[in-house]
Protein: SMF family protein
Amino acid sequence: MKYSENALNILTVRTFPQKGPAWIDKNLRGNEDLSILYHLLETHEYEFMKKRERIESAINQLGNCADGLVAIGDANFPSLRGSVKPADKPFALFYKGNISLLSKDNLNIAVIGVLNPDEKIELTERMVTSEIIKHNATIVSGLALGCDSIAHQTALEKGARTIAILPSTLDSILPKENVELAEKIVEAGGLLISEYYEAPKSRNDMVSRFVVRDRLQALFSDAVLLSASYAPNNLGNDCGSRHAMEKAKSYGIKRGVIYNDSKHHDIAMYDLNRQILEEDSSVIRIDSANMSEAVLRLVTKTNQRFLF
Structure:
């Protein structure tokens, strides 16, 4: 697995108390001399190097499941789309496949949605995703069951590249049902990325990783498209799509939803789509009647501010 000393140092810094993403963003640019890190962390060489050795041993356990690790300060660490608060910025990424797909020069469109779409939702999503791919877009999603899988599969079927952003480590892909799909993504020139090299410490940690993962779908995409999703409710069937759409809005990333009022107004799996349209008139509505025009608006890059 490829990684720099800088990347190891960044991961090591993160293990010190109260040294989260916001602190890292404020104090580090990458490739700092070790003496500077010791001073900033108020630590000594022995403690720092002991932590770093443990981390290096852990990441090497990933073996061939990961091609590399990149961190802030590395030449190939990707730019972020939109205007992102420091606490949301990733500082290190493990990857398998073509890391250059995260470049701001690449047109990346995220397609997300429910875990249990019906046949009509699947058909519509495949049609819209296929139209997006005509614009030489790379499809981004989260490898979840349902709409995420449909997005990745459609990209593969159309000969397009696709990026899967994982809530798990690269050697323990979730959901397990999509391990084969993940392998196909890489074989087809796509990319898997994760922020993690160790298993979650608790169930709460695991749940939080899904939520944290959702922000990356916005950060590495020029637009985020919601296929279908329940609105927040007490049934627990609303999915992470809501988090990704909220983050896209806060970052200034373009958003789109699939929705036709005459067809979908009484279908619960389109409740979030409808809610988003009602709350934000700038959201692009896509249906069969305006698909080509609306998709063109979705994939046309705007003058977003890119962060490094």
Remarks:
- The CA atoms of residues 211 and 265 lie 28 Å apart.
